[in-house]
Please model this.
Amino acid sequence: MKMSRITALTLTALTALALGACGSDDSGTSASGADLVKKDTLTVCSDVPYPPFEDFDKSSDSGFKGFDVDIVTEIAKRLDLDLAIKDSSFDALQSGQALNAKQCDLAASAMTITDDRKKNLDFSDGYYDSQQSLLVPADSDIAAIADLKGVKVGVQQGTTGKTYAEENATGAEIVSFPSDAEMFQAIKAGQVEALLQDLPVNLDHTTDGTFKVVETYETDEQYGFAIKKGNSQLVDDVNGALEEMRGDGTYDTIYDTYFSTED
Model:
């Protein structure tokens, strides 16, 4: 039996509406009314690996581990939400692209709060005070940023470490990489002679004595969790959870797990 063109178009339209409705059922709001990508779930994007803040861990419930991971796990628990973590490029996170595309509700990726990023993102309160630092091989003659003229220095694209290097490493040849993992492989292979990035991450590369941190830089940076611009209720919810964690000692316990030996 053949259908008329009008009937066929009507059925097509109804099917499209039904599919759209099915898709929208997966999204939702939290108990407080915050918009969520997936109902009853806090979906988090992070650029992995970036230890000690985030790294892969097949043995954990989320598939990830690290300081940021522990903090967002506790936040989700206090908001009575399940937690899902996705690996994402840092550029997509700091630009707001991943959040605007509804890939996640929150970006937890050792991201410094800056005025430029605030144009495209909302941020939670700061949860970590950071410094920049310079990592070199243990037998290197490089002792300070002033020694970097003509030296290849690895930085991660889109980061404040790259900005600091561009503004302060006079005469250096700055080489950008998508992630810390690629930067570290490059310095191990001798493709660059130094890495300039966040202190805890560089410290993580010194554990076997092959590399050393020769200089640190006070930059008054604070990390914050990035949230899609306009989702103010989720910002308030995350800030409330962070305040509770600081008040009852949970934050300090997590912090000391990763940074108790840091100077």
Summary: The chain has ten helices and 14 strands. The longest strand covers residues 211-223. Residues 1-24 have pLDDT under 50 and may be disordered. The CA atoms of residues 245 and 253 lie 10 Å apart.
